[in-house]
Amino acid sequence: MENFTSQDLIYGLFCLGVIIVALFLIRKVAGCLIKTVIMAVIIAVLAAVYFGVIKV
Known about the structure:
The chain has 56 residues and is mainly alpha-helical. It contains two helices and no strands.
């Protein structure tokens, strides 16, 4: 297992924050379509951060 860097910590905290905000929004927002759009946006943001920061 490789050593953790500050980028890994920032990425992890960002993902945790996105998940918390997403759960809060999903609880507050009604409607299946809106929930689907929110989840699609969250997945797109996480994928962009993953490929942008980690550069797989």
